[in-house]
Amino acid sequence: MQFRTFLLRSVFTGLAVVTVGCSALLGAEDTEEVSELALSVRMTATALAAPTATPTPFPTLPPTAEPVADTAQSETSVVEAPDVLPEYISSELARLGLGEDSGELGWEHPPLLVEAEGYLQYKFQNYELLTLVEDFVISADITWDTDTGLAGCGFVIRADKEADPNAYTIGLSRSSNGSVNWATLENGVPIKNNAQSVAGLQSKDPSFDWQNNTTNRITIVARGESFDVYTNGVYIETMTGQSPFAVEKGFTGFLAINESGKTSCHFQNGWLWHLNK
After folding, report:
1. What's the 3-state SS for 143-191?
2. Residue 201: which region, alpha, beta or left (left: phi > 0; alpha: psi -120 to 50)?
3. Distance CA 183, CA 242 (A)
């Protein structure tokens, strides 16, 4: 059982990043780097792109008399309404001690169901292709349904390439009344001495529910090689990267990992926030 648990944890931390996707550019200076990464992703990625609607042409209207300009109205300047950050994001930032001046919104993700089926299988998806992150916050409400307690749901963080990546993975599982599993990949291989697990989340976060078909929110605050983990707004642990192949910038997204049978991870209220450097 110990070997099986280690194998699953290694797979949980290692499998996710092979099919990494990403979406808005982090900055103009990254154009060449993003273009190269995007080409790789578009050639072989399995991440699903968001569906696009077919535009419907407007009907042709008969010509009308040319309107007379209203001089008083035309001289009045138009003031655009400022962008308003959704309350569920601003409130989570406030719980983390971060104001809206701490950075900028990278994306809001639509609800997403990620499922993996079969022995030691995984699936990774993100509709927001080509987003690179450095210091950031990522958060989502996760509803899970797994056939075993060792399966789970989480995030792939800062993958630098699609095949054999250097990356980090953080995920929740139902084992031990809830646990957080973390590891570093070096060229696609899990590093044993940099794998961490925090068990008994319910003892730290009384609102955490490890049972099937329940929802918990996981939030990660990443600064350099430190990753603060929160569940339902409660601080759990700080995971620290120790790899000589530390990934400073890369892709991130949503992950389902399966031990056996089937695992379903329903992500809602997912968002990414770029932190100021």
Report:
1. EEEECCCCCEEEEEEEECCCCCCCEEEEEEECHHHCEEEEEEEECCEEC
2. alpha
3. 10
Considering only residues 50 and 80, tell me which one the structure prediction assigns the higher pLDDT: 80
Judge contact between 122 and 16, C-beta under 8 A: yes
Burial 93-110 (b: 16+ CB within 10 A, else e): beebebeeeebeebbebe
Q: Is 241 helix (H, G, I), strand (E, B) or coil?
A: coil
Rounded-to-10 torsion of CA 5, 144, 136, 109:
140
- The CA-atom distances, in angstroms, between 66 and each of 60, 61, 63, 69, 71 are 17, 14, 9, 9, 15
Residue that the structure tokens 């993100």 belong to: 126
pTM for the structure as a whole:
0.71
The CATH code that applies to domain 2-49+87-275 is 2.60.120.560
Distance, CA of 267 to CA of 207 (rounded, Å): 18
Distances in whole angstroms, Cα of residue 251 to Cα of each of 134, 169, 188: 9, 11, 14
Residue 233's CB is within 10 A of a number of other CB atoms, namely: 15
User: How far from chain centre, in Å, is Cα 136?
Assistant: 10
Domain ranges for the chain: 2-49+87-275
Model pLDDT for residues 197-240, shown as the tens digit of each residue: 899 999 999 999 999 999 999 999 999 989 999 999 999 999 88
CA–CA gap between residue 218 and residue 229 (Å, rounded): 7
Q: For 53-63, what is each residue's pLDDT tens digit?
A: 333 343 333 44
Specify the pairing of strand 226-231 against strand 234-240: antiparallel
